[in-house]
């Protein structure tokens, strides 16, 4: 697999082949391979990033991160054909290597910098975090995104600096089955301090109505719906026009699909790998939902993310590990 660096102006012809290709010096020279000739199960779109995470009562760890990384590492390890369209600095292309080694096709939109996120857990409540976006690679535009064939396209940002309604409409017009993590809109950057505040989203109903699936955590769900009850929040989001909703919290995960609500508890013994919990859960759910029903997919996702949360970084286990966890703690 390889990293294909897209041109700065995002110029593509009718079949999605870049008219010019930059040099990915950190991992070799990218070639003008047409993404239009590949067919993916799931494609992730968003920023690559560095995450600096300080745990409550513990130390600080800085490592490559982002919703794209957490998600793509899950689906690729499950044997799902995966692509990632990421915006980042070409100086940091080496941080894509774990995805490439895992078989992910990575397409890079060049940016002036790579997003850098600082996360501080100030209490034992892992759902409450202070997040500062030290740097951001900026908005992704439709002309930056090559045309490709994918069963699912997941828009997974880490703040409101990545996507806008124009991009959503344009991706929808291409005929993709879209999903998004609502943190991409609820997490709003405060000018000057760059601290992330969680705020309501003016066009939330329009965004949700364009999606086949949406993911939120319990904090985001309350901000958007006004309800701290995940079941009630899921019903409200469903009423906005999305047929399938996931809401995570510190204890477990809820899915609402086909008019039915499902619950599954987590079984982790540690929260050292809390960062990326929702990204991992939803990616596992998306992968499993390609061929399984919501209840089975939710159980699988809860078991997988429980394993992930016990170690730092993206999920590094196997599908066999997940089945063992299901048998031992989720049956």
Could you characterize what this model shows?
By secondary structure, this protein is α/β, with parallel strands linked by helices. The protein has a single domain, classed as 3-Layer(aba) Sandwich (UDP-N-acetylmuramoyl-L-alanine:D-glutamate ligase), CATH 3.40.1190.20. It is 28% helix and 27% strand. The protein has 10 helices and 16 strands. The protein has helices at residues 67-77, 97-101, 165-173, 183-186, 204-209, 218-225, 230-239, 277-289, 294-308, 319-329, and strands at residues 3-5, 39-47, 49-54, 60-65, 82-88, 105-110, 115-120, 130-135, 149-155, 178-181, 187-189, 196-198, 213-217, 244-248, 252-257, 260-265. The chain has a 10-stranded mixed beta sheet, sandwiched between helices. The chain has a 4-stranded mixed beta sheet with strand order 4-3-7-8. A hairpin with a 3-residue loop joins strand 14 (244-248) and strand 15. Helix 6 (218-225) packs across helix 7. It is globular, with a radius of gyration of 18 Å. Residues 1-32 have low confidence and may be disordered.
């Amino acid at each position: 697999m390889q990293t294909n660096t897209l041109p700065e102006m995002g110029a593509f012809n009718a079949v999605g082949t870049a008219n010019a290709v930059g040099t990915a010096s950190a991992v070799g020279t990218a070639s003008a391979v047409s993404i239009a000739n590949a067919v993916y199960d799931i494609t992730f779109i968003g920023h690559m990033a560095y995450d600096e995470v300080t745990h409550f009562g513990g130390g600080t760890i800085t490592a490559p991160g982002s919703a794209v990384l957490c998600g793509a590492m899950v689906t690729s390890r499950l044997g799902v054909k995966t692509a990632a369209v990421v915006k980042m600095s070409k100086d940091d292309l080496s941080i894509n290597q774990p995805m490439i080694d895992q078989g992910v096709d990575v397409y890079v939109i060049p940016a002036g910098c790579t997003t850098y996120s600082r996360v501080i857990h100030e209490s034992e409540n892992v759902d409450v975090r202070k997040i500062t976006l030290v740097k951001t690679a900026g908005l992704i535009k439709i002309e930056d995104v090559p045309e490709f064939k994918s069963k699912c396209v997941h828009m997974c940002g880490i703040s409101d600096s990545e996507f806008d309604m124009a991009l959503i409409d344009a991706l929808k017009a291409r005929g993709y089955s879209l999903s998004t993590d609502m943190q991409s809109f609820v997490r709003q950057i405060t000018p000057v301090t760059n601290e992330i505040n969680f705020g309501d989203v003016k066009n939330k109903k329009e965004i949700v109505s364009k999606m086949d699936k949406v993911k939120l955590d319990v904090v985001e769900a309350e901000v958007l719906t006004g309800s701290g009850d995940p079941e009630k929040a899921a019903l409200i989001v469903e009423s906005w026009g999305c047929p399938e909703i996931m809401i995570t919290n510190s204890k477990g995960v809820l899915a609402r699909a086909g008019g039915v609500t499902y619950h599954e508890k987590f079984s982790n013994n540690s929260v050292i790998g809390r960062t990326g919990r929702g990204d991992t859960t939803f990616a596992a759910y998306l992968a499993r939902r390609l061929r399984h029903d919501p209840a089975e997919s939710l159980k699988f996702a809860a078991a997988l993310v429980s394993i992930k949360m016990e170690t730092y970084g993206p999920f590094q286990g196997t599908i066999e590990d997940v089945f063992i966890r299901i048998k031992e703690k989720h049956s």
